[in-house]
Amino acid sequence: LAPEIRLEQSLLDLPEIQSLDLQEVALAKARDAWATIKQPLIVDDAGLYLATYPLFPGPLTKFVHQSIGMHGILHVAGENRKGLF
Questions:
Q1: Distance (Å, rounded) from C-alpha 6 to C-alpha 17?
Q2: Is the overall model pTM greater than 0.85, yes or no?
Q3: Is 82 exposed, middle or buried (0-12, 13-18, 19+ CB in 10 A)?
Q4: Is residue 44 annotated as a catalytic residue, yes or no?
Q5: Rounded distance, CA 66 to CA 61, Å?
Q6: What's the CA gap between 57 and 51, in Å, rounded?
Q7: Distance between CA atoms of 60 and 56, rounded to whole angstroms?
Q8: Residue 77: which of 59, 51, 55, 58 has the closest Cα?
Q9: Which residue out of 13, 21, 44, 45 is catalytically annotated?
Q10: What tens-digit pLDDT sequence spans the chain (85 residues)?
């Protein structure tokens, strides 16, 4: 039998490194979270990829959102509001 695993959500305000590599961003967050909670963890991180600009904002979503907001992101997207998350 598999051991019982109990998950707890921890809302940590972790630094967001500036990198175009989503895996690098998630690993940095995992290291920073480990330094705080010192327990096994799962990092949930994502990027937004616009159809108009396939690499933007990508892993820089938080930084871009803080800089230009959702209206700015929608302006950049233009008429084509399709994208991936």
A1: 29
A2: no
A3: exposed
A4: no
A5: 8
A6: 11
A7: 8
A8: 51
A9: 45
A10: 888 888 888 889 888 888 988 889 999 999 999 999 999 999 888 889 999 988 889 988 888 999 999 999 999 999 998 988 8
Q: CA-CA distance, 74 to 20, in Å (whole number)?
A: 20
Residues 84 and 47: their CA atoms lie apart, in Å, by 8
Place of tokens 């707890």: 8
Q: Say what the alpha-carbon torsion angle 52, 25, 14, 29 is, to the nearest 10 degrees.
A: 150
Q: What is the 3-state secondary structure (H, E, C) of 6-69?
A: CCCCCCCCCCCCCCCCHHHHHHHHHHHHHHHHCCCCCCCCCCEEECCCCCCEECCHHHHHHHHH
